[in-house]
Request: fold
Amino acid sequence: MKSPTAPGGTSTGPKRRRHRTTGTRVRSVVTALALVAAPGAVVVGGAGDAFAATKISHATATSMFREVGITWSSSGNCSNRNNATCTSFDQLNLATAQGAQTLKRASGCALNVTGGTETGHASGTYSHWNGYKLDFSKYTCVGNYIKNTFTYIGVRGDGAPQWRSGSGNVYADEGNHWDVTYHNCGGC
Reply:
């Protein structure tokens, strides 16, 4: 019997079955912990996704925000994800909600969310719609905290000045609000 050949013509030897029990076990533990931390959370992604995002509901996000004194508002006075005048947190990443909590706790500043996962924002992998971004009202306290604590990294393609936290989250000054991209919970 002929041994399988890898790309480039090298022999791989006899085929061995790999068991994915370790990855599955770790994923199960992470999922269980996320559900304990945020009831109503949903983990999306297949078993092979190393960093699948845990999605939460609007109700879970507002509960997490209330817990630390974060407020939210919408020009349409609504929370429908499919209405651009609403502020919705449906399908928000758990790490994004936790990142907002971290910012509130670390800064001690008032924090008001004006944009969540609703339609009407720019598209992309790390977008509002995909649960990675929140918009915050511009208050002097939070602006000073961001500028004095994080590293200035230059302007974005649209001209918005940006600061990066030590954990990698990016805070962009869009003039009338802060546009924050959460890659993680910021040390929660």
Observations:
- The CA atoms of residues 160 and 175 lie 8 Å apart.
- Residues 1-50 have pLDDT under 50 and may be disordered.
